[in-house]
Design a protein that fits this description.
Blueprint (H helix, E strand, L loop, with lengths): L1 E3 L2 E6 L3 E7 L2 E6 L3 E7 L2 E6 L3 E7 L2 E6 L3 E7 L2 E6 L3 E6 L4 E6 L3 E2 L3
Parallel strand pairs: 1-3, 2-4, 3-5, 4-6, 5-7, 6-8, 7-9, 8-10, 9-11, 10-12, 11-13
Length: about 110
């Protein structure tokens, strides 16, 4: 687990799992599955080659260009998801806006 601070990951060919206490997290060009467990801070993920799972306490979430499904469990903060080749599943969105476009599969929300 990373306690706090900014994290930037770019150009990984395999799977990634990130457990972060607080701070911004930016992921780009990841070839496999991505699992994020984040206490607070903004999350940006672009160019994910597999499924993307985000468990976030608070902070904005921006997702773009995912080859698999996207699953989000979010306490608070805005969620913006674009261009997903499979399903978008919002397990929980405590508070904040939800915007999505370009979802090729089903969209399942908690509301």
């Amino acid at each position: 687990m990373i306690g706090s601070g900014s994290i930037k990951i770019d150009g990984v060919h395999g799977d990634i799992s990130v457990d972060d206490g607080s701070g911004s997290l930016a992921l780009a060009n990841v070839g496999g599955q991505v699992i994020i467990d984040d206490g607070s801070g903004s999350i940006s993920a672009r160019g994910v080659g597999g499924d993307l799972s985000i468990n976030d306490g608070s902070g904005s979430i921006k997702v773009h260009d995912v080859a698999g499904s996207v699953t989000v469990d979010d306490g608070s903060g805005s969620i913006n998801v674009q261009d997903v080749e499979n399903d978008l599943i919002i397990v929980d969105d405590g508070s904040g806006s939800l915007d999505y476009s370009g979802i090729s599969g089903d969209v399942i929300t908690d509301s």
